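Before relying on records like the one below, remember that each one covers exactly one chain. Contacts with other chains, cofactors or solvent are not represented anywhere in the record.
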Amino acid sequence: STNFNLNPTTLVLYSTAAGTTTIKAWIGGNVVAQVNVTSSAAAPTVNTMVFTENPKTISLTGGTYDLKAANLVIKDQYGVNITSSANVNYFSNNTGVVTVNSSGVVTPVSAGTATISVIESSGATSATLTITVQ
């Protein structure tokens, strides 16, 4: 179908319009696997945000803690992980214990407990993490 373009370097399928196409894998002239792929005209949006470890304890002397790399999973309405590209905002309710920057990197300040909130840019989806600094 002309609605789909395949980038062979990264094996990512880009859709230029809503539609369905079949992707086939060939070995020695034989089809060894195939799958039908359907794309939607709707752009990905944040659907779920989950902290995989909650509550979380970090060390005061252990350096920073990257939420996106270590603990936060954000998925779109299609179930695709979009953690690295999602447009979210981070907040700490106790900056005397931890601060969090716009990239989701937490910096311990002192021993104690704080809540980190992650809110999707429209405010429609959010998640909280209880974090203890020891």
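The mean pLDDT is 88.
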